[in-house]
Amino acid sequence: MPRFRVPALLVAVVLAACGAKDETVAAATSVAEEAARTEPLASQAQPATPPARPAQPAKQVQTTNKPVPGPIVADPPHVDFGVVAPGTVVSANIKLFNPLDTPVTIKAAKPTCTCTTVDMAGKVIPPKGSIDMPMSMKTSNSVGERAAELIVVFEGMPQQMVLRLDAETAYAVRANPAYVDALAPERMKGAVELLAVDGKPFKVLTVDGKPAATADGSPMTAATRQVVRYDFTTEPAKPVPPFLIVATDHPDCPVMDLRVRHETTRITPSLAFEEFRSNVGIIPAKGSIEFEIQIKMMGQNRVQAAVSLNPAAKAEVVSQTSDGQNLLVKLRLTDQGLPKGTFLFPCRFASGSKSADLWIYGLVR
Questions:
Q1: Within 10 A of 135 (CB to CB), how many other CB atoms are there?
Q2: What does the pLDDT look like over 225-265, one tens digit per residue?
């Protein structure tokens, strides 16, 4: 999926990387809304090759871990991948420079999250020379921001280097604003605006599982901007969903979500899920799909079980990877009778004495 630049004023649907509370999601400003309509598409590119001489980063970024100064220099010390598709693996190469007359051995290079991969322990930086440090980071499956730090320490010196990786995930179709405000009774039905930020015309297929209807009642035709209706009053006995699921025919955004603000949709799980929902994408009828979620602050705890609360689907844990603090869990979801189209239901995770529900959604076809 092409990379596109997004103004900083646009607020992500979920502040996934920061572990922010779900209810802190805010509206985009009118300036950001207008920019979303006109922001040009930029071509995707890997980070530029570092210059022959170490340079200061263009953007100063605060780090969570405390760096300890030393002679080894990283170029660049911060990589911003910009806006990429959810579930994308982005890669970068950071060059480490050794100005000393003696070689320096890397004692450890440890990322702060399981989403980042690097293998540099035991590598030697030659005197007056440099070494490449390739690394990769997998972005979240849903929209939001992700940040990771890499802590590098060296044998025989107190230096602690802290490097930063940033990325924002966004779909090719973006809602404006990124949520549905259903707090007041009169706002239980209304319309949402959807924009193709990559400039490709698209149609909206369904909204909340129902055939999409344009706000003015006109026939649906392919366009880069769609305004479609939603209505939570048609089934009074049905709870207001925490997310409004939208299906489109855009090849890079078959299914997406908008957070629904309502007095009954507050989400406060007892496990620190990195995201409050996960887009598992497209599942073939009677087939299965694997996806990953991250649970923070787990320590040595593990997930004993993951159970779908929808009997038409089966969830099972495939693997678990821990970095000592965060836990990356790979799950398999199998269709056992889901109707074709979009779905949204919780999956219950059990870990020790705790259990918590994570909303998952996707598309069966």
A1: 21
A2: 999 999 999 998 999 999 999 999 999 999 999 999 999 99
Residue 75 inside a domain? The answer is yes
**Domains in the chain, number:** 3
Look at residue 343 and tell me if it is in a domain.
Answer: yes
Q: Which of 227, 258, 289 is the last residue of a domain?
A: 258
Give a yes or no: residue 276 inside a domain: yes
Distant-in-sequence, close-in-space partners of 46: CB < 8 Å, separation ≥ 6: 91, 92
Q: Are 55 and 76 in contact (CB under 8 A)?
A: yes
pTM: 0.70
Say whether the peptide bond before residue 177 is cis (omega within 30 degrees of 0). Answer: yes
What does 162-224 look like in DSSP terms, one character per residue?
A: EEEEEEEE--SEEEESSEEE--SGGGSEEEEEEEETT---B-EEEETTEE--BTT-PPP--BS
* Domain range for 93: 65-169
Which of 169, 184, 209 delimits the end of a domain? 169
Residue with tokens 């900083």: 8
Same domain membership, residue 275 and residue 251: no
The predicted structure's pLDDT at residue 10: 35
Within 10 Å of residue 228's Cβ, how many Cβ atoms?
19
18: tokens are 């920061």
Q: Which residues are paired to 148 by β-bridges? A: 165
Alpha helices (H) along the chain = 30-38
Residue 146 CB partners (closer than 8 Å, separation 6+): 16, 17, 115, 137, 139, 140, 166, 167, 168, 169
Lookup: tokens for 22: 């779900």
Say which CATH number the domain at 309 has: 2.60.40.10
